[in-house]
């Protein structure tokens, strides 16, 4: 198993290449590498992809991201260097060897995925060294026993402890490796149990901090409760779950109140205003009223608490809302006016035209028109009665 002597660089189509499944398992199918993409778009692929053709299929052992970016940019051919491999096990070892010092950084979860492989390789080697030492001791006779013991100790000293060597390969301390291994094992168990929401959340916490994830996993009571909450979709992260457990609060709706206005970090849709008003809270959703900036109409959006990435704002329309409540009392017996005012209360703020509508309701025009209408109706009633009287008299 080695690189080809005096390797020949060839250029082949990305369509003829297949990524080794272990690369996808460890590093994910699609990675975001903007700096690498910028470099490739400007300079092309500088370092060749390492490929094995052992099975007759061109399997990429190193260069998954470069291949992914080449396909995205529509590059017709990529630089490839073929390597020699005699078995699937050798393919796998090359994958790990080539990616040991992978550029772009690795998450903790990716490192421990690699650690799992290194342990599987190094532990049998360590056991073989131990067996060899035992054989040498058994072969010793009384005259050279002490010499053999010393020689065996010397041989054992030449090999590092497995955990130490794995930790060095992953560029983390032995203590962190012991802690992280416990977290990695729980993530694997959750994946087998198909608790995928908990898997995603714990993996995110693990990548943020090995120590924090380890402390969480060791507190089995909190850990089990938070996992249940994650799977029930009541929370979206380990941090939220820990906070709620410690505060004795499990209601994710507790921070929302009717009529509050929130500014979202990103627009929910391009056509919607970035601020919204809470107009309802159900057992499942927080209901927001937002303005559609294309047609200026009100749109209703239902969001689960974990989906809401927004900050509470000071009330932007306090004086206008006070006026609307006053008008609703004034026109309590006029249904169409009640409907229009109720809809205005659902919006985070009012447009100039809506302000004009308020002023029209507040002016004397409406009441004067109403009084004129009543006078006309009364006059028509009097006229009708007179006609009836004349007919009766005739």
Structure report:
Helix content is 56%, strand content 13%. By secondary structure, it is of the alpha+beta class. The protein has four domains: 2-104, Conserved hypothetical protein from pyrococcus furiosus pfu- 392566-001, ParB domain, CATH 3.90.1530; 112-247, no CATH class; 261-313; 318-362. It is elongated and about 145 Å long. The N and C termini lie far apart (124 Å).
Feature tags:
11 strands, alpha+beta, Conserved hypothetical protein from pyrococcus furiosus pfu- 392566-001, ParB domain, 5-stranded antiparallel beta sheet, elongated, single chain, 394 residues
Can you summarize this structure?
By secondary structure, this protein is an alpha+beta fold. It is built from 16 helices and 11 strands.
Fraction in beta strands: 5-15%
SSE order in H/E notation? EEEHHEEHEHHHHHHHHHEEEEEHHHH
- Principal-axes geometry comes out as elongated
- How many separate helices? 16
Count of DSSP E strands?
11
User: How many domains is the backbone divided into?
Assistant: 4
- The low-confidence parts are 147-158
On the 0 to 100 scale, the average pLDDT is 84
Cα-based radius of gyration, to the nearest Å: 36 Å
Which structural category fits the helices and strands? alpha+beta
Helix content: 55-70%
From the N-terminal CA to the C-terminal CA, the straight-line distance is 124 Å
Main sheet overview? 6 strands, mixed
């Amino acid at each position: 198993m080695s690189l080809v002597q005096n390797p020949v660089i060839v250029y082949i189509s990305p369509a003829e290449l297949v990524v080794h499944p272990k690369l996808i398992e460890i590093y994910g199918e699609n990675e975001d590498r903007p700096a690498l993409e910028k470099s490739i778009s400007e300079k092309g692929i500088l370092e060749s992809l390492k490929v094995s053709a052992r099975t007759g299929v061109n399997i990429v052992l190193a260069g998954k991201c470069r291949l992914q970016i080449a396909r995205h940019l529509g590059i017709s051919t990529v630089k490839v260097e073929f390597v020699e491999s005699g078995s699937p096990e050798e393919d796998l070892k090359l994958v790990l060897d080539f990616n040991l010092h992978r550029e772009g950084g690795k998450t903790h979860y990716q490192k421990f995925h690699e650690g799992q492989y290194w342990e599987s390789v190094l532990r049998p080697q360590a056991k073989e060294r131990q067996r060899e030492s035992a054989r040498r001791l058994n072969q010793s006779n009384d005259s050279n026993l002490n010499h053999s013991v010393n020689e065996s100790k010397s041989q054992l000293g030449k090999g590092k402890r497995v955990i130490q060597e794995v930790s060095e390969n992953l560029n983390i301390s032995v203590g962190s490796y012991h802690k992280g291994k416990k977290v990695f094992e729980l993530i694997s168990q959750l994946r087998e149990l198909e608790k995928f929401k908990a898997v995603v959340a714990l993996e995110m916490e693990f990548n943020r901090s090995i120590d924090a994830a380890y402390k969480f996993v060791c507190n089995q009571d909190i850990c089990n409760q938070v996992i249940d909450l994650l799977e029930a979709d009541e929370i979206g992260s380990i941090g939220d779950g820990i906070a709620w457990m410690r505060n004795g609060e499990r209601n994710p709706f507790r921070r929302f109140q009717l009529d509050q206005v929130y500014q979202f970090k990103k627009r929910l849709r391009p056509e919607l205003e970035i601020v919204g008003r809470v107009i309802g809270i159900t057992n499942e959703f927080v209901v927001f009223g937002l303005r559609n900036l294309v047609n200026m109409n009100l749109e209703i959006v239902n969001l689960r608490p974990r989906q809401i990435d927004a900050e509470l704002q000071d009330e932007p329309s306090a004086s206008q809302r006070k006026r609307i409540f006053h008008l609703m009392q004034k026109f309590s017996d006029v249904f169409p006016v009640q409907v229009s005012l109720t809809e205005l209360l659902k919006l985070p703020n009012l447009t100039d035209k809506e302000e004009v509508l308020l002023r029209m309701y507040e002016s004397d025009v409406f009441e004067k028109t109403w009084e004129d209408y009543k006078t006309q109706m009364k006059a028509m009633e009097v006229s009708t009665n007179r006609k009836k009287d004349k007919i009766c008299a005739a």
